[in-house]
Amino acid sequence: MHHSHPFRILKPFAIAVLPALISQLCWAETVSDSKDPLEHIRITASSELGADVGLKMPTKITELPQSITIIDNQRLDVQNLVTLDDVMLYSPGITVQPGTSLRTAYYSRGFSIDSMSFDGITTSGWNEAINTEDMAIYQRVELLRGASGLLQGTGNPSGTINLVRKRPTENLLAEAKLTIGSWNTYRGEADVSGSLNENNNIKGRFIAIKDNRDYFYEQASRDKSLLYATTEWNVSEQTVIALTTKYQDTSDDGISMGLPRYSDGRALNVSRSTNAGAGWGERNWQNYQHFLEVKHVFNDSWQGKVSVSRIDGDSDLIYASFFGAVNEATSKSMMFMQGAYDFDNQETDFDAYVTGSYDVLEVEQNIVVGANYWDAESGQTSYSLAGVSGNLDINTYDPSDVSTPTSKNWTGEQITSTRQYGGYFANRSLLTSGLTLIVGARASWWDTDVQRRSEVGGPTVPTGQYELDSEVTPYGGIVYDINDNISFYSSYTSIFKPQNYVDAAGDVLNPMTGSNKELGLKGSFYQGKLYGAISGFKITQKDRAQVDPNAPCSGGSDCVYIANGIVESQGFDVDVSGQLDDNLQLQAGYTWLDTEYVQDRNASGTSSNLEGTAYSSFTPHHLFKLWLHYRPDLFTHKFSIGAGMNSQSEYYVDSGTIRMTQGGYTTFNADAQWEISPTTQLALNVKNLFDKHYLSRIGAIGWNNWYGEPLNVQLSLRVKL
Q1: Bridge pairing between strands 665-677 and 116-118
Q2: Which of 160, 199, 621, 692 could anchor a disulfide with 115, C-beta 3.0 to 4.6 Å?
Q3: 512-525 and 282-297 as β-strands: parallel, antiparallel, unpaired?
């Protein structure tokens, strides 16, 4: 696979940004006016922040009738959350499941999160050629739970993640961070930011990251490099133009498809360090992301933003891994699952909106009107491998003993082009001094085209086309201020998801529709320093494809379908974050969840074995996450400590008549920070403090079972110039 040089795009930025920033360093006496390096450990209450995952209006999240959590930069630093996987693991209401070929899935309210945005720009979702995001370049993570179709268009009624990038600073910022830790972890970060001219109307920021580490399972490692550059130009007091580019290159060696299980469904009696993959297996990722943003303030009441992004990514994967149930008597699995793939993805995203306020009959109104668009093309080339063999005894298996492939043979190519565009609006009416009504809607157009090439250099053949026109997504909510601190809210949000099945007439089925009905209380306390919310919800996803009972089939490609299936999830969330007093911060979340196949029919039209059972059995009924951070006065605020826990009830996965279960478990974490000098800080982070053994994912009997990370420790040194 061709890899272009990482400085191809970043070079102009480096030439423009770095010399100016270096010149600032030469005369700067201090990076910050703060005399306390630990002062940054202040967890901002979410009630004081707006969020692009809400309505794109300049409102606090206490004024939005949806469940929103914000993980800010301070918490990312203190807990040393360096990847999006780390952030989601400690986010309220989210279940994290590792998966095959290093792809992690996030679940909210029983459904997988399949939508993501960057600075509010909607994207197509999870891109196979892009690896998990590194948090060093992001200021905060915004997480919305529940249907988010107003801004996202298509997807599951689970929620969405918005990553907010770090911006250039006017005052000089220069710092470096070095981290060492368990499993040969070595990570370096450098961050330089400041004004690039005397007028301070052009600012720049440059971040570089190098990260090398082993995985906790044997003969597997990661090598990651990342470069990030951004500039902002204040053209006038009303207009700001920002240009950003990011390059990331990641190589993973010794990748696995997870562990198999014994034939009766029990977990293997092997060490957590067991790697069922081949030592020569690898996955390489390389991607560029470019962003252009223009903000304009028209007057005191109206403002707008136009954003464009481009994502170019490629990835290659080659692997061999155990596949098949292990015979306990012989300790042997059935075979090696093996293959190779090349991925090549391009995507263009666009978003534009205006928001402002006006009056109707002396009633104050806030409105947002916008449109967004994304166009994604993904190519996947498949290969078969020959000559792969090795020891299939899991007790004596060594990844390095698996023979390397003698040949890699092209087997096919698939190119998928998908596009979505639409317009949206939401209007917020302040009906009385304490009652707000919000109504909105979106109209979406969506189409996809799938082409298949079965011969090298041969023509492509269409294998699937599908389009939707004017799909309407409604939105509604009310917020009532009970008093100065507490508000009641209720909302109805929705989303749709296309499905590629045809009915007896040969027409593609209507999309699945998901709705989220929610009500709750939100509160802001201690002058906005503490935020709390409790919400009850019910999600219904209907029109799921089912085999048409009036058209008998063999169960294969001759089947036709009806849109008849229904699944539901219901439960409640509790979310608290902010400061309890000047020295104590916390973030806590509890979720109770129940899911069900409400209507699921088999080919005869009668209820299937799934009907009435859990739709998402691998998401626990009870999920609790807590993190506390304390700065005692005893050491004049030069020392701080933190502790947290993740606790969940049991979950299970059924395979035929076999039920595979992971019992409930709790893991604990701890951290400490010490101010060595006004410019130097030392931090210690310990995860899975008591080395709890558990499976973070149950896949199938033959593969895709993953242990959670054992006890691990990281020590970081941060220096500000």
Answers
A1: unpaired
A2: 160
A3: unpaired
User: Closest Cα partner for 705 from 122, 370, 396, 257?
Assistant: 257
C-alpha 134/C-alpha 555 separation (Å) is 43
324 phi/psi in degrees, rounded to 5? 115, 150
pTM of the model: 0.92
Residue 133 pLDDT more than 70? Answer: yes
C-alpha distances out from residue 426 to 62, 110, 301, Å: 17, 27, 16
Separation CA 239–CA 221 (nearest Å): 45
Q: Which helix (H) or strand (E) holds 296?
A: strand 282-297
DSSP state of 505: T
In a domain, 132, yes or no: yes
User: What CA dihedral angle connects 61, 62, 65 and 66, to 10 degrees?
Assistant: 50
Residue 718 scores a pLDDT above 60:
yes
Domain span holding position 656: 7-720
Average pLDDT (580-589) is 93
Q: Cα separation of 616 and 109, whole Å? A: 9
CA distances from 651 to 166, 352, 660 (A): 37, 42, 9
Residues 496-524: pLDDT tens digits? 999 989 999 988 999 999 999 999 999 99
From CA 518, how far away is CA 466, in angstroms rounded? 32
| Confidence band for 128, pLDDT divided at 50, 70 and 90 | low
Token couple for 260: 């198999």
Domain membership flag for residue 517: yes
Give the residue from 92, 89, 39, 227 showing the smallest Cα distance to 571: 92
Instruction: Assign residue 45 the CATH number of its domain.
Output: 2.40.170.20
**DSSP code, position 483:** S
Checking if the pLDDT of 642 tops 50, the result is: yes
DSSP 307-339: EEEEEEEEEEEEEEEEESPBBTTTTB-SEEEEE
Total number of domains in the chain: 1
Its sign, for the CA torsion 117, 118, 122, 123, is: negative
- Rounded Cα distance, 511 and 444, in Å: 12
- Within a domain: 1: no
Extract the tokens encoding 381: 């080339």
Answer whether residue 165 is part of any domain: yes
Picking from 695, 639, 634, the residue whose alpha carbon sits closest to that of residue 663 is: 695
Q: Give 555: exposed, middle or buried? Use CB within 10 Å, 0-12, 13-18, 19+.
A: exposed
Tell me the pairing of strands 116-118 and 121-122: antiparallel
pLDDT digits (tens, 9 = 90+) for 461-488: 998 888 999 999 999 999 999 999 999 9
Instruction: Compute how many other C-beta atoms are within 10 angstroms of the C-beta atom of residue 23.
Output: 12
